Structure formats: C-alpha cells, structure tokens
C-alpha cells in the first residue's frame, strides 16, 4: 500500500470516532429548541443534518436542536413518526424500498412522487424537493484488482466473486434493495458469507485486503484518495437515491416559515460538491459546521 494511503487510513480511523463524538450529543434532552434535526450515523448524513440546521437558523428565528449521528434509517424514521424528531434528510430509494417495502424501480421522478404521496398519506410527513444529488450504493473493489482483471461492470466481477470475500453494512444485508437482490441479479456468490461491517470500517478493510468487495456510497470523499474503483451497475439494479429533506407536516403547520427556508435548498448540491464536502470532513478532518458554513456562504455569493 502506498504510504500516503496508509497514513490517510490510519488518521481517518482514529479520527472517525473523535469527529462524530465531539460534534454530537444524542443524550442531550430536547430542551426548549423549536426544531429537532437528526441524521443517520455517517459523515454525509451529519453534513446534511448540519446543513438543514444552519439553513433554518439563518432564514428563520427558530432555534434548532441537533441530534446528529443518531443511528440508521429506521431509528430516524421512527423519531419522525413519534414526534421526537422534526426533520432529517433521507434518500428516495431508501424510503421507497426500506420504509415502504416496495421493489426497486429505476425512474427517479416516479420513485420521488410515490415516496412523497405515501409518506404524506401513511405517516403525515412532508417530503421536500430533492437537494440536487443522487447517492447510490457503490459496489467497489481495489483499483489494482480492477486493472489486473479488467473489471468495469458488476457483471464482470461475477466471474471472480466465488474466490472473494465481501463486506457490507447491516442495512445493505437486510434491505429490499440490498444484498439478496443484488446477488440474484448478478449471480454473485462468495467464498464465505459476506461479513457485516461498520460503514466507517469497510473502506479500511478493502484497502487492507481483509475483504475484496464492499457496498459503499457513491459520494464518499475517500474513493479516489484510496484508489478504489466503483463497478458500474450495468443491469440497473439499484433505484435512484435522491437526497430529500423530510419534515413532520405538523411541524410545518406550526412553523410555516420552514417551508420556504428548506425549499431554498432545492437543487443546491451536485454530486461532486457532496463528495468534496465529505472529503473535507473525512480526508481533511474538518468540522461539519465549518464545511457547511463555507458551502452555504459560497452559494450565497454566487447568487448575489
């Protein structure tokens, strides 16, 4: 492994807990804050939770309680349903398959509209317009393996996976749009059952050759820096995963100024910009709030 890669991974591993720990306080009671924002437990989600919080604070007079790094999809969704949380950013494909238990489909607008309607009807939750980027599951291998075996598509990898080990997150192993459907679509088998791994450790395990294939995020900031290759989903298995703010309709009715504030974020973030923000946190070890503040300021300057 290149020395630069080794150092980056070593520092990233040490700092992963430090950064999530020092910027979150999930045991803190709601107190008197007007709005409670949560996020799932990985870098991009913490950035997006902070983005919502700063946008609300800058565009309204409301106070925000940040419950960042809260947990997985179902914990955040349950917080919304029960009123413990007011808003968080979800991905349309995740909502469609994991929460609504629908089979994956590929059309982004159809998925978005179905999620929007079902969330309002079933949960009294309002799905806001997409933020502008799609963060799909990314099936990755080491760059050296991709070059040596001429791997470009997931179909190419199927020939070699019987000799490989895979590492996946818990949700990917259990979701409708996860491992079982992917394996059936591409006829993937492995040398042993896939190992369930913490999302923050999968990249390290792949580079250190503890596993040979992982399911990460397409907007992860470390993909290029670690020399990893994302295999193309050539059979279009994965649904679209547009990032969308979801807020309790009851909260919007109580604070109608929220709708205009959050709508201003529509289409604001490209995939490249999201990947860059992720890298600023994971690769440069900067604070979420600093990265978000700079991003929002740069967007405001362009509009002026």
UniProtKB/TrEMBL annotation:
Residue ranges of every copy of the ABC-type glycine betaine transport system substrate-binding domain listed in the record: 34-297
Pfam families associated with the record: OpuAC (PF04069)
CDD domains found in the cross-reference section: PBP2_Opu_like_2
Domain of life: Bacteria
Gene3D superfamilies attached to this UniProt entry: Osmoprotection protein (prox), domain 2 (3.40.190.120), Periplasmic binding protein-like II (3.40.190.10)
UniProt name for this protein: ABC transporter substrate-binding protein
Organism the protein comes from: Phormidium pseudopriestleyi FRX01
């Amino acid at each position: 492994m290149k020395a630069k890669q080794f150092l980056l991974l070593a520092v990233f591993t040490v700092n992963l807990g430090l950064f999530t720990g020092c910027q979150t306080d999930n045991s803190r009671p709601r107190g008197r804050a007007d709005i409670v924002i949560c996020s799932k437990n990985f870098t991009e989600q913490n950035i997006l939770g902070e983005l919502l919080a700063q946008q609300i604070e800058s565009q309204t007079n409301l106070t925000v309680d940040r419950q960042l790094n809260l947990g997985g999809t179902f914990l955040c969704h349950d917080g919304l349903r029960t009123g413990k949380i007011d808003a968080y950013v979800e991905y349309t494909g995740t909502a469609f398959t994991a929460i609504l238990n629908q089979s994956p489909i590929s059309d982004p607008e159809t998925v978005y509209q179905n999620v929007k309607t079902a969330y309002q009807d079933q949960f009294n939750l309002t799905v806001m317009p997409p933020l502008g980027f799609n963060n799909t599951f990314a099936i990755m291998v080491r760059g050296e393996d991709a070059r040596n075996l001429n791997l470009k598509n997931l179909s190419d990898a199927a020939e070699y996976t019987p000799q490989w080990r895979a590492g996946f997150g818990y949700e990917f192993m259990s979701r409708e749009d996860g491992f079982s459907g992917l394996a059936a679509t591409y006829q993937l088998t492995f040398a042993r059952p896939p190992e369930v791994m913490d999302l923050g450790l999968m990249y390290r395990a792949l580079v250190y050759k503890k596993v040979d294939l992982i399911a990460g995020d397409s907007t992860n900031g470390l993909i290029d820096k670690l020399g990893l290759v994302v295999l193309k989903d050539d059979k279009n298995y994965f649904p679209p995963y547009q990032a969308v703010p979801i807020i309790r309709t009851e909260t919007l009715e109580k604070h109608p100024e929220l709708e205009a504030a959050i709508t201003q974020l529509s289409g604001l973030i490209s995939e490249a910009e999201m990947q860059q923000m992720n890298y600023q946190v994971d690769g440069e070890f900067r604070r979420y709030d600093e990265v978000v503040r700079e991003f929002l300021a740069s967007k405001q300057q362009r509009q002026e």
